[in-house]
Amino acid sequence: MDIKTFQELKQTIKQTNKSIVQIAFELEENSSNLNKNELKKIAKKTLKAMKEAIYTGLSAKSETNGKMGGFDCNKQVEFYKNHPSVFGRLFEKIICYALATSEENARMGRIVACPTAGACGIVPSILISCFEEFDIDKEKQINSLLVAGLIGKIIAYKVKPAGATAGCQAECGTASAMAAGAMAYLFDYDIDIIINAAALAIKNILGLTCDPVRGFVEVPCIKRNPFLAIHAAVALELASAKIESVIPADEVIDAMEQTGALMSADLKENSKAGLAKTKTAIIMDKSCFTKKYYSELND
Amino acid sequence: MNEISILDIISPIMVGPSSSHTAGAVRIGLLVRNIYNKKIKKVKIILYNSYAKTGPGHGTDKGIIAGLLGFNVDDTIIKDIFNTPEASKLEYIIDWEESFTRHPNSVDFIFDDMTISAKSVGGGEIEVDRINDFSLSINGKYNVLVLVVKDKPSTLARIADIIQKNDINIASINCDRYARGKNTSCCIALDGDIKNSAIEEIKKEINPCLIRYINKLGQ
Ligand code: SF4
């Protein structure tokens, strides 16, 4: 048995009366030859790595490997100390945790690619801040990671989560949908709302290009992570009010696939257009590809 | 091969910043280490195209050396690998080149007695595509038996027979004939782990010019 569309997922849940978590575990037990306990152990280890990346990143204040960032999380944390966000503590945490993880990634720190390294801050920032703010028990924490993974898996059947394949909609967009669905699960919403939250998140991010400056996972990637995390939260807010995506989830993914295919290769991780070819980016790029630059980087 | 698991989506735990340029580089280093299969004293590494251009900012060079030294993708030592005692014992040169004929993320390893080429194909997935003069395909997901044999009829069938007799499923076979009647390279991906006795049997039966068993990479 495998589940390749959101429609199949919904039907299976309604026909078998199983929960989304049960289905996620069963699918994974089938395809991986691991039993439920082994899977739980891996999920636990993954969540721990997510948390460690966040807390390392929160207290770090040093340049990233490509030398284009590394101080933004610190700025945000310091700012909040004297100016608490008008949107409350959860909002603060989501933004800081996403920045912390993405900066850690660009510093060659240890992160979880979820689904990719470039989008590594989105799912963890949502999950970990919800765990902390709403006192979620361990069992449910693990389950929520599997729900996120199941949503990513269904999307990945049609669109490979890679900027080179379909632009950033496939990386940060997919991560945002995963986070939205997992959050819906955490707050006990039913499968319709989980799927709808994922669909709304993707729908609003269709066409997002991948044009990293100098080819590094820094600009725009680092700041994009907190944006797409909050984006997931908005998707949940709408979905939980039973606002529906007029276009069903599976068709939204079809649209993402088509949009990705139509997108110029120059905007798919090649750094040949968009932000990567702005005046400032070109000046920054000039110092690249020289021996001096390499030796500086490896100082 | 289109199967995607939930674990694929929520992994790997890795050192950033890029799955293809960092984790992929470490995995290439690890696989090349398995293929070379003896202590590496000296190596020249040539990074091509995107691996050359954005490699240093992504730690591609560090990742490759860390992999060659046996460190895994999630080892935080990778960032400082150049300053470790392990790296200081290794004699290596890293060069950067542009070549239109090569894959955007490709790399050559030049040892005194062997040349290996590899590429990073996205999302941390990799492929070793050349050993010396033979093109082949090893992705680190399967245990692989690599052979160079005299190009004679039925050789392949005899090898497959021995493997099957040992109760191991063959996942794929790909061959490259260097020149007719001369040598053929053969790359057999296996679903299980082959016993030493089976390898000995192949050696005896076929008398290959080269036989090497390469373990798949860990998760
Ligand atoms: S812009 Fe490209 S490299 Fe950066 S996170 Fe998005 S897909 Fe990844």
Mind explaining what this structure looks like?
The complex is a heterodimer of chains A (299) and B (219). Chain A has a single domain (6-297), classed as 2-methylcitrate dehydratase PrpD, CATH 1.10.4100. In chain A, 64% of the residues lie in helices and 1% in strands. The longest helix of chain A has 24 residues, at 36-59. Chain A is globular, with a radius of gyration of 19 Å. The model of chain A has no long low-confidence stretch (mean pLDDT 94). In chain A, α5 (89-106) runs antiparallel to α6 (122-134). Chain A is an all-alpha fold and 299 residues long. The N and C termini of chain A lie far apart (52 Å). With 219 residues, chain B is α+β, with helices and mostly antiparallel strands. Chain B folds into two domains: 8-132, D-3-phosphoglycerate dehydrogenase, domain 3 (60s Ribosomal Protein L30, Chain: A, 2-Layer Sandwich), CATH 3.30.1330; 143-214, Alpha-Beta Plaits (2-Layer Sandwich). Chain B contains eight helices and eleven strands. A six-stranded mixed sheet of chain B has the order 3-2-4-5-6-7. In chain B, β6 (125-131) and β7 form a beta hairpin. In chain B, α2 (19-36) packs parallel to α5. Chain B starts with 5 loop residues before the first helix and ends in a 5-residue tail after the last strand. The mean pLDDT of chain B is 91. The interface between A and B is large, with 59 and 39 residues. β1 of chain A pairs antiparallel with β1 of chain B. The complex binds iron/sulfur cluster. The site of iron/sulfur cluster has 13 residues of chain A, from α11.
